[in-house]
Amino acid sequence: MPRPRFLDPTDRGLSQLGQELLPVLYRHRLLTAGQLTQLLRPAATSTRYIRRQLEVLHGRGLVDASVRRTSRAGELLWYTTALGCEVVESGGELAPRAYRMTEDAAASQLQEHTLAVNDMGLAFVQHARRLGDECGPLDWDPEVAHRVRDGDSRLGDEAFLVPDSVLRYIHTTPTGDGGQQQQRMLLTFFCEIDRATMSIARLAAKLHAYARYARYIPQPALGRGRPKAGGYRREAWRARYPSFPRILLVLDGASQRQLTKRTDDLRALVAADARLQPAADLQAGVTTLEQLRAHGPFAPIVTPVLGDPEPTDVLLRRSAAAASVA
Q1: How far apart are CA 130 and CA 213, in angstroms?
Q2: Which of the ends of the chain has fewer CB neighbours closer than 10 A, N or C?
């Protein structure tokens, strides 16, 4: 697959790689040189060239770095500066985002969570390359807000669902006699990363939010906030997605034994709590970041949240097929 061209390579005298680095850093907030190398130059045997380009961008005030809190060797985590954000936004290739990484945010305790979200996306990208599928460096988007109820926007968490990331992936499978034809399926995922820091009850509450969004039909306000008679007839998600995205909970930050226990506890809570049964029509599964990296999304590594506990792949075959694309 050809590398996308994000900005004119002559802008600010940057190399082609420099032009590729800026949008990736802008979208994904915080990345290591190793992650950037695997995303943009997967054939490279070291991070030297990426690091050299990052230094050039740093010298021009377009990127900055923070020291990774958990690194004894002083590993740097890179992000776009305010000027770098302006350069990306002026290129018109990416939708502007209100959130911008700051020096304080880059040095905060959210470092590892942000890196884990990007490791999840990177795992999909690497396996897409191996399988001949389509998922590139910009095919996941962190913290996209989705309204789940009408009313005052100041309600914050009560009014919005904000997945850790929304990831898009085109999976190709052979069809017909001899596999000469191919079917391309657009898969969209709501991804949540848990580094063993959330309670099981909070993970279950996230499923509540997804079930609420699956059913949410916005109502136009009339007068003093009263909905217009009849209202809308379509769920809000239909304006954004061809089918309701699959929900993938990715666990990390503990031993495999502990993460398996968390998966079992979540399944038990969902099965026992009648309030969570609206989630039964959702395609939701749990895996670990280690398994996703090692085996890829189409290995039997995903445990359904509801029903049969036998691991399957991200297609969660018990449910309806994905949307087909030309």
Answers
A1: 34
A2: C
Q: How far apart are CA 306 and CA 17, in angstroms?
A: 44
Per residue in 88-116, pLDDT (tens digit) is: 999 888 889 888 899 999 999 999 999 99
Which ranges of 107-228 would DSSP assign to H, the alpha helix?
A: 111-131, 200-215
Alpha-carbon distance 16 to 22, whole Å? 11
Calculate Rg over the CA atoms of the chain. 21
DSSP result, 235-303: -GGGGT-SSPPEEEEEE-SS-HHHHHHHHHHHHHHHHH-GGGGGGGGS-EEEEEHHHHHHH-TTSS-BE
Three-state SS for 57? helix
Cα distances from 306 to residues 266, 269, 297, 311, in angstroms, run: 9, 10, 19, 11
pTM over 0.90: no
SS3 319: coil
